[in-house]
Amino acid sequence: MKYDKSVNKKLMKFIKIYNDYQILKIISENNNCDWKKLKELTGLTDPALARHIKILDVEGYIITRVNPKDRRKHYYLITDKGKKLLEELSKFESIFEKIISILEKVELDDKIHI
After folding, report:
1. Helix (H, G, I), strand (E, B), or coil: what is residue 33?
2. Average pLDDT, rounded, for the chain
3. Which residues, in sequence order, are bridge partners of residue 65?
4. pLDDT, tens only, 24-42
5. Angle 84-90-96 (CA atoms, 0-180°, nearest 5)?
6. Domain residue limits at 26
7. Interacting residues of 35 by C-beta distance below 8 A, sequence separation 6+
8. What are the C-alpha distances in Å from 77 to residues 3, 16, 54, 57, 101?
9. What DSSP element (H or E) covers 43?
10. C-alpha of 62 from chain center
11. Rg for the chain (alpha carbons), in Å?
12. Do 92 and 20 meet the contact criterion of CB atoms below 8 Å apart?
C-alpha cells in the first residue's frame, strides 16, 4: 500500500472534530463543567485540551468563566452557536462510534500478533 500524506491529514482532522464533539457534548450535559471534569471524561492531555478549549472559545462555541474566588478554576458553558454545531456533529455519532470500534479491533488484533 502506497503512503498517502492526505490520509494522515484527514485522520488528524477526524481526531480534531471527534475531540471537539466530545468536549461540546460533555459541556452541554454538565452545567458549569470544569477543567478537571473535561480532562477526566475526554482523556486528553492538558496541552491538547487547552488547544481545543481555546479554539472553541475563540470561535464562539463555548464561553469560559473564571471563578472569582479562585482564578485558577475555569468553568465552561456551551453557546447557542455551540449547540448548533453539536447538533450537526451528533448526526455523525454512529460514524464516530463505528470508526472507534474499528480502531479498537485493529489495536486488539495488533496485540494478538505480538
Report:
1. strand
2. 87
3. 75
4. 999 999 988 999 999 999 9
5. 140
6. 5-112
7. 49, 73, 74
8. 41, 20, 13, 10, 30
9. none
10. 13
11. 16
12. no
C-alpha–C-alpha distance, residues 39 and 46, integer Å: 7
Q: What is the pTM for the complete model shown?
A: 0.80
Which triple of cell numbers denotes residue 9?
491529514
CB < 8 Å & 24+ apart, contacts of 91-100? 92/21, 93/21, 96/18, 96/21, 99/14
Number of domains in the chain: 1
Q: What's 32's domain CATH number? A: 1.10.10.10
Residue 1 has a pLDDT of 57
Cβ neighbours of residue 103 closer than 8 Å, sequence gap 6 or more: none
**Nearest alpha-carbon partner for 26 in 70, 71, 61:** 61
Specify the residue for cell string 479498537: 104
